[in-house]
Amino acid sequence: MSNTFPRAHRPRLGYRVEQVEDFLLRARAAYDSQPAGDGGLTADAIRHTAFSMQKGGYSTQHVDAAMERLEDAFAARERELAYQTVGNQAWFQEARSTAQVILNRLSRPNGHRFDRTNVLTVGYSTVDVDGFAAKLSKYFQDSLPLTVDDVRTTVFRPQRGGYREAQVDLVLDSVVDVMLAVR
Predict the structure, then answer these.
(1) 174 vs 89, residue with greater confidence
(2) Number of C-alpha atoms within 13 angstroms, CB side, residue 171?
(3) Is the pLDDT of residue 91 over 90?
(4) Dist. CA 30–CA 58, nearest whole Å
(5) How confident is residue 38, by pLDDT bands cut at 50, 70 and 90?
(6) CA-to-CA distance for 162 and 17, rounded, in angstroms?
(7) Which of 37, 83, 123, 138 qualifies as a cystine partner to 162, CB 3.0-4.6 A?
(8) 28: Cβ–Cβ under 8 A, 6 or more apart, which residues?
(9) How far is Cα 146 from Cα 93, in angstroms, rounded to an integer?
(10) Would the CA dihedral through 61, 149, 173, 129 be positive or negative?
(11) pLDDT for res 39
(12) Is 151 a residue whose pLDDT tops 90?
């Protein structure tokens, strides 16, 4: 019986143990043997990894924290490889360019930053997203203290006719990429 992480107490759901263990083995092998950027596992791929749920599976809180640390480690390795291949100047220019695209999106008026779902479909609360967008704008423009975890763990209430979740999530992923790039 594997015990890499604490288990969720029954009847609570946790991540499927076999999937988590298999992913960790592949991640360890990828980190040990492959240089970043060669088509192997990337920080972005780690961020988008999902596991099935099972009763008594691994604690989601503990696995999520480990996945965030793993993403950070892969991002640092990718950053170092980029420094070696394109240099610091080009790497930071790319991060600045991405940050400007994000800031342009966030500068749109409240209620118009993202496409909206129709009134019969649930999206993210426009008030919640616009409020967090203001924090992100201050982070990029005024160096407001904000951490990668603040972005990763932000939660928006559901709203009929709200912002399209996929668009908001894509921007948040880009923010994380920029934050990891300039650490």
Answers:
(1) 174
(2) 23
(3) no
(4) 22
(5) low
(6) 35
(7) 123
(8) none
(9) 21
(10) positive
(11) 56
(12) yes
Residue 36 has pLDDT above 60, yes or no: no
- The letter for the amino acid at 162 is G
Residues in the chain: 183
Query: How far apart (Å, rounded) are the C-alpha atoms in residues 16 and 6?
Result: 12
Q: Omega before 11 cis (within 30°)?
A: yes
Share of the chain above pLDDT 90, in %: 66
Residues 97-123: pLDDT tens digits?
Answer: 999 999 999 999 999 999 999 999 999
Cα 59 to Cα 10: distance, rounded to the nearest angstrom: 11
